[in-house]
């Protein structure tokens, strides 16, 4: 490892420990033998990702930034912590690495993203689903929302706002501002 302070190649490891939210990194403290500078490096296993087969049939390399951007767009202005998003990305990447095939269809990755979003935030799930599933009409959109609400665990129900108002709430006339 080259020293970032002086560029010398002779560095030694002073300390190593497991790091990262998923305990999937090694954090190493190093010391340069030439100048004495200390610095930290992180080591993580590199996964061999399958090629992604798009709907058009085109085959492209897996792009983690595209995955992150799609999640970020769905979660825009939603109360989800960055570390939760990164953990979801890591879970998807692990599934990809364990897939065991050289290629994977993009819609399979989309399903995994929807599973992760379902656990993170209802609104983000519906935002992503509205594009990914290409709803034919309003009723199919409403059906997806109702299925989502029915499948929620009790703790998730308590932590998220309802997507569709209760019948008696929606029947009430809107308040007038005059």
Question: What does this molecule look like?
Answer:
It is a single chain. The mean pLDDT is 83. A hairpin with a 5-residue loop joins strand 4 and strand 5 (59-60). This protein is an alpha+beta fold and 178 residues long. It has helices spanning 64-74, 82-98, 106-120, 122-132, 138-151, 154-159, 167-171, and strands at residues 11-19, 25-32, 38-44, 51-53, 59-60, 103-105. It is elongated and about 70 Å long. It has 2 domains: 11-44; 51-159. The strands form 2 sheets. It has a 3-stranded antiparallel β-sheet, with no helix packed on it. It has a 3-stranded mixed β-sheet with strand order 5-4-6. The N and C termini lie far apart (71 Å).
Q: Estimate what percentage of residues fall within beta strands.
A: 15-25%
Largest sheet: 3 strands, antiparallel
Category from helices, strands and their pairing: alpha+beta
| Distance between the amino and carboxyl termini | 71 Å
Helix count? 7
Number of strands: 6
How many domains make up the coordinates? 2
How large is the radius of gyration?
23 Å
Helical content stands at 40-55%
**Average of pLDDT:** 83
Judging from the principal axes of the Cα atoms, what is the shape?
elongated
**Which stretches are low in confidence, meaning pLDDT under 50 for 5 or more residues running?**
none
Strand order of the largest sheet: 1-2-3
Query: What is the succession of H and E elements?
Result: EEEEEHHEHHHHH
